[in-house]
Each structure stands twice: as structure tokens, then as C-alpha cells.
Amino acid sequence: xxxxxxxxxxxxELQFPFELRKQISCSLQLSNKTDNYVAFKVxxxxxxxxxxxPNTGVVMPRSTCDVIVTMQAQKEAPPEMQCKDKFLLQxxxxxxxxxxxxxxxxxxxxxxxxxxxxxxxxxxxxAPPQPPSPVREGSDEDSSPRASVSENGHSNALDFxxxxxxxxxxxxxxxxxxxxxxxxxxxTEERNxxxxxxxxxxxxxxxxxxxxxxxxxxxGIPFMYVVVVGIIGIILGFLLKRT
Length: 243
Hints:
The chain is of the alpha+beta class. The chain has helices at residues 145-213, 223-242, and strands spanning 2-3, 8-10, 14-17, 24-32, 37-44, 50-53, 56-59, 63-71, 86-94, 117-126. It contains two helices and ten strands, in the order E-E-E-E-E-E-E-E-E-E-H-H.
């Protein structure tokens, strides 16, 4: 801590995290440990480069005051990041109840017999703060609840797909069974119909035989009758074979 007899100044130097084309600020804290009102004034060797707020003021007894120093944006970096700029903080005991309006340049004139204390501060450029490093792959996030939710969601999706596939297969099996039963029923009806027609034809054939039994003297069964019966027999055989 740099200090005079009436003001304590912290820090001992003005540190700026230097970056090109960017305004940078740092602060000074002035502490008055006495029971007097203390007036102060801040000067610099490069007033166009820096803005000081407030550059003059009064620190009341047993109190503090913060001074903000802002460096204007720089287009070029200094050689080896060394800065030769300096600041001078002057302080003097003021009259009780004094305010900033009561401060005059004459108060800080040593030649006028005022007891002025001075503290020199140098400027230092430091490296700007580094951004936080990105999270590496395979970090704790892999075991986070979100990962578990994702895994459960994937598992649920697999279960749903398996159930859906089983349901579809069961539906397809049911459709196939229904078609098979329908086909069997249709074939059975056709077979029964053919059998019934066969019985009817046999009955008609037997009736014809009986009717022609009395006509043996006429040379037996007519040729056309035999042809018709043969054709019917072929048709019935084809139908029975198909079923």
C-alpha cells in the first residue's frame, strides 16, 4: 500500500489488462484515516491518453473514495509491453466541511506555503484474463442425468419398436389364418357340391338302367347314352382331383 501521511492509496501501481482497440479501466482507492477533510488532485504525464474520474475531490474524515482511471483504446502495442506513463496524486488538508467546489489550484501550490503531499504511481500493462477452457469430451457430463434420460429414452424406443413389430407380425399371422380358413371352407363347399352331384348322377344312371332293362331285345343301351355318361364321369373325376 502506497500512502502519504494523510491518505492511504491502494494499489501501488495502475494495472491495465492491455488489449488493442479497447478501452480499459482500473481503480484507485483513497482512504482517509484522519479526522480532517482531505482534498486531492490527480495528474498524469499523458492526459490525452487517460481519463480520470474524479480527478479532484474531497475525502471526508474516516472514509474512502474510489478513483476510476480509463485508458483510451490503443491502435498499437508499446515495445515489449512497457509503459512510461506516470501519475501524480497530490493531497492536502482542507477546511472542515469542504466540498469539491471549494477546491482551487492554489491549494496544491507548494510555493504558496501549503503543505502538499505527493504520491507517484506508475502504469503497468498485464495480460488480459483468459476465457474459460471448453469442456472436454468424456467429462462428467457423460454421467449426468441428461445422459441417463437419453439412454432410457433410447431403450424405451427399442422396446416400442419391438412391441410394434410383434404386433404387426401377429396381425399378419391372423390375416393369413383367416384367408386359409376362408379358402378351406370354400374348397369344402365345392367338394360337397361335387359329391352331391355325383350321387345324383349315379341315381339317374341307375334309373336309366332299370328303364332300359326291359328293352334288351332292342339291342342294349343306346350309344349316345354311353357317351353322355362317359363325359359326365370325366368331368366329375376332374373336379374331384382338383379338390
